[in-house]
Design goal:
The complex is a heterodimer of chains A (about 500) and B (about 90). By secondary structure, chain A is an alpha/beta fold. Chain A is built from 16 helices and 25 strands. Helices cover about 30% and strands about 25% of the residues of chain A. In chain A, a hairpin with a 2-residue loop joins strand 9 and strand 10. In chain A, helix 5 packs parallel to helix 7. With about 90 residues, chain B is an alpha+beta fold. Helices cover about 30% and strands about 25% of the residues of chain B. Chain B contains three helices and four strands, in the order E-H-E-H-E-E-H. Chain B has a four-stranded mixed sheet with strand order 2-1-3-4. In chain B, strand 3 and strand 4 form a beta hairpin. Classes of the chains: A alpha/beta (about 500), B alpha+beta (about 90). Strand 6 of chain A pairs parallel with strand 4 of chain B.
Chain lengths: ~500, ~90
């Protein structure tokens, strides 16, 4: 599964998509891992998903020890992820050890005690289910049930050693009060400190961002740092392993059309398949038209997927038919799928997971996203960057050509934050810019970058009319278009600039 | 006749188990004369009973009768608190 040497420590898959990737195979087998997180950080989901995977993958039983929520509540809550716990309980593939406190029942302490019964019950539950996996949720709640923290700490220590002795792979959850503070309350991290995972649920720029970090795996390797994750209905936890994604993208020499002959020419013969093209421009300068042409360029044996975050399906189709393109027809033939969404409907992590899912189902050969800037609105800087890396690497693995648009905040020149984030990731960049000339707004297009190919370096004028986009001649007498400060150049100035780059010894060099 | 029904959950034949059993026997003989029934359950032998009763700590004494049901954990060496738990003493005593 992974080529990294992980020593003698075997790993056990958790069934959490992406986690296997960042942990190089899963949780260390036969060991205990502390999963620490604040309230609402999806600790319980993690603990349960780990058990479900054992049953699903190898029929291995699981035991869930709960100190906080009643088994009935857990069964109900987990239904939303599509997990039928009742069925697993009935078939003795799963057992609960209910260690919750009965509200209202008074417990008196009269002398020395230990938590021997708890350990005995866990061992018993493992015996009847044949469990190799045990989850304990959550340790902090035990402290509320007994008066002496010292006794509880000692007894939890004993439980941890018992789990180790039994040879099961265990997940112990613990709550923390701060996202970047002590690992867990009551100092309980000490005795399960072999492996520590931290789940975070941070409020950043008014947006919730969930991340998972493997803090340590004793004696075995893992990816470092925080990775975003999402909790998806019907699925459970999904980790987005960004930096973990291998950068072994195929780079094909196959060219596909951009939908515009002249633009193809400027790019040196069309876009590369397995490449990402970023089109940047101010509002109204023709980005959506570029996308529309790109969609229309879909050949009969191709499939195109369009994610539209700014315009509705009706708007897009109407505009297209205005330019003489029949999207309705393409859709009926199964060559086009349009997914329209308000960016605000979910977090950018959820958008990524959903978009990947749609792509996996539809298997497109070209994908357009209009626009990335709209998604940027609903994410944090870090989150957006991760999104772009995630979607880019996914697309590049699939023999898909991708066209992303990005809106510049200023009308003339300028760059958007979107570009800052992703210009190094994309293979090609096309700039659409307004050019102010003699009291008139004109439009210029240029191919700024075309990885692995020669391309036209000039800035060409283009016009938009009822037939679409027409790319014309180069702006010859204007400078400073990209800087947003176009200046008219006189003929003499142009000649002087030409001379600047001419070798003195060149045969056709004019006399100075 | 058996007015008190007392279930004592212990784990194994440990010193702590023995202490709890003898403490309970002493208290019962002194306070309840013969009006009690006492059952000792080893959670290692009958883990399902421990599961049903949600026993965590050992020893645990459950007073099933008379109501209300009450739990007392520990080796019962604190006689005063045991009597309190069995409703044989009030806080004022």
């Amino acid at each position: 599964m992974n080529s990294r040497p992980s020593g003698a420590v075997q790993k056990l898959a958790t069934g959490i998509p992406g986690f296997e990737h960042i942990s190089f195979g899963g949780l260390p087998k036969g060991r205990t891992t502390l999963v620490s997180g604040s309230a609402g950080s999806a600790k319980t989901v993690f603990a349960m998903q780990f058990l479900i995977e054992g049953v699903r993958a190898s029929g291995e039983g699981g035991v869930f020890v709960t100190f906080e929520e009643s088994p009935e509540d857990i069964i109900r809550n987990m239904r939303g992820f599509g997990w039928d716990l009742q069925e697993l309980l009935d078939s003795k593939k799963l057992a609960f050890v209910d260690a919750t406190m009965d509200a209202g029942e008074e417990v008196l302490e009269a002398g020395h005690y230990d938590l021997g019964a708890l350990v005995a019950r866990i061992e018993y539950a493992c015996r009847i289910t044949g469990a190799g996996r045990v989850s304990v949720d959550s340790l902090g709640a035990v402290f509320g049930q007994f008066s002496s923290p010292d006794v509880v700490r000692r007894e939890l220590h004993r439980m941890a050693s018992a789990l180790k002795r039994m040879g099961v792979t265990a997940v112990l959850t613990a709550e923390r009060t701060e996202e970047y503070g002590g690992l867990a309350r009551f100092g309980i991290e000490e005795f399960v400190a072999d492996n520590v995972i931290v789940l975070r649920n941070v409020l950043e720029e008014e947006k919730r961002r969930r991340t998972i970090e493997i803090l340590k795996f004793r004696g075995t390797d893992h990816c470092k740092g925080e990775f975003p994750f999402s909790v998806i209905p019907g699925e459970g936890i999904m980790v987005i392993p960004l930096a973990g994604d291998k950068l072994e993208q195929r780079s094909s020499t196959v060219r596909v059309t951009s939908g515009n002959e002249m633009l193809d020419e400027m790019c040196g013969g069309g876009f590369f398949r397995d490449s990402i093209v970023l089109a940047s421009g101010a509002t109204g300068c023709g980005k959506t038209l570029l996308v529309t042409m790109f969609v229309n360029g879909t050949s009969p044996d191709e499939r195109c997927l369009l994610f539209a975050f700014e315009e509705s399906r009706e708007q897009l189709f109407r505009n297209a038919s205005g330019w003489g393109m029949d999207f309705e027809q393409m859709e009926q033939e199964g060559r086009l799928k349009v997914v329209c969404d308000y960016p605000e409907t979910m977090g950018v992590e959820d958008h990524l997971i959903r978009m990947k899912k749609v792509m996996e189902e539809f298997r497109p050969t070209r994908v357009a996203v209009d626009s990335l800037s709209a998604l940027e609105r609903v994410s944090t800087g870090k989150g957006f960057r991760e999104f772009v890396i995630g979607i880019t690497s996914f697309i590049k693995h699939q023999e898909i050509v991708g066209l992303f648009t990005s809106t510049t905040p200023t009308l003339l020149g300028g760059s958007s934050i979107t570009e800052e984030h992703i210009s190094t990731i994309t293979d090609s960049i096309i700039l659409l810019r307004y050019v102010e000339m003699f009291g008139e707004m004109r439009r210029g297009i240029t191919v700024l970058k075309m990885r692995g190919s020669m391309h036209d370096k000039s800035i060409r004028e283009y016009t938009i009319d009822g037939d679409g986009m027409h790319i014309g001649a180069q702006f010859r007498n204007v400078a400073g278009i990209l800087a947003g400060n176009p200046t008219q150049l006189s003929e003499r100035e142009i000649d002087r600039l030409d001379d600047l780059f001419r070798e003195p010894g060149e045969a056709d060099a004019p006399a100075v | 006749m058996n007015k008190y029904r007392l279930m004592l959950y212990v784990m194994g034949q440990t010193q702590r188990s023995q202490t709890a059993i003898s403490n309970l026997q002493r208290i019962c003989q002194n306070e309840l004369q013969n009006q009690y029934e006492m059952v000792v359950i080893d959670v290692l032998e009958q883990p399902q009973l421990a599961e049903d009763q949600k026993i965590l700590a050992t020893p645990t004494l459950i007073k099933e009768l008379p109501p209300p049901i009450r739990r007392i954990i520990g080796d019962l060496s604190d006689t005063g608190r045991v009597l309190l738990g069995l409703d044989l003493r009030t806080h004022d005593d």
